[in-house]
Amino acid sequence: MMSSTEDFSSLLDVSPALTNKRLSLALTDWFHEEVSFTHWEYVGDTGKGDAYLSELIRIKIHGTNKDGTSKHVQVVLKYIPKNTCRRLTFRSDEFFRNEINFYNIILPCLLKFQDSKNLTEPFKSYVNLFFSYCDGLNDVICLEDASLEGFTSAVRQEGIDFDHCKQIYKTLAKFHAVSFAMKDQKADEFDTIKNAIFETYYDDRHWDWYERYWKRICGVAIDAVEKEYPDSIYLEKVKEFAVPERYKEMIKAVRTHDTGVFSHGDSWTNNFLFKYEGKKPVDAKIIDFQLARCATPVLDVSFVIYACTTQDMRLKYYDELLEYYYKVLSTQIREMGTDPDKVYSLETFMAEIKKYSFFGLAFSFESTPMIVLAPEDAVPMEMEGDEKRNIEDFWQIPPFKTKEGRQREANNIVFCVDRGYI
Asked: What CATH code would you report for 157-419?
């Protein structure tokens, strides 16, 4: 919550990058006429537990044009943590740089390519960038507030239902399809722009950073299975799976070049916003591209399943959802003038589902404890000091307190074992 003594004529207290001159230029670009920044207005915070790698507030940025007419834009302002220990421990500068490069370089090129095609339903499920700045210390991303269009978050603690999952898969399929077609038709340009983003999570250079935390979350997964399915094949399989070597397999998975597309990288419930008619979701937008990478689309597809859904939903709709994703994907690719059977056939997709679904399961070891936490139990982000620490010092995730939490985790493993994925 903002202080009542806040100076609303400047945003420099939020970030030194947010100078009045830069804000005036951003307003001018946004409104396509000269607009000078005058003041800002606090709208609200986001919920506790909604962001770990950054700080978030919702504000209005006001200005006037040459005629003295007032203009404003409402944005979600995401800025790098000011606390040095937190910024260094979570490598915030890397995540900000990756997302800013995605919005400034990757997305405009994808959209330009898509705009050259005559699509029935083009990919529009993103939030517009208002302003960004990146220097590793004062990084900022301002994105248009999609709540003004009626988009809102789903409750992350509950598994999403079939209708929510269809909207997510439709959104991801249309997003992935642009890459497949561009890669086929403009390979050199695709290869050039993909160098703008880099792997922020699964890389040999991060193992020292991640090793202790990986051991902790593997222990939580094993504990859940041990209590819910004692003396079972599932316990045997999770003990074989939850080992340090698995991280090496994940490093290989994020480097699938032959079928690599621009993928979101962190496709859990928090990173989708939904528009509703009544209680039914009818549209979705993707947010938060800090883990964006170039890899097989199955990494996104599988993470949705294990991070966002319940066992009941999977048992009823899993095959139907995969068919739906591929139908949307192949239709979009074909409409853009590329043969989906050539660049990513159904057989290839299903083979990669079998090969790479382990990735979604392993990533869910980290996400599921975060998802089921009530907001008041979210991991605190207050850190003292100005030195880099190990993330396990702060993300000390305990075993699940409830049977429901353990089942959410354990049933992911059950599903993977029953499907022959691990």
From this structure: 3.90.1200
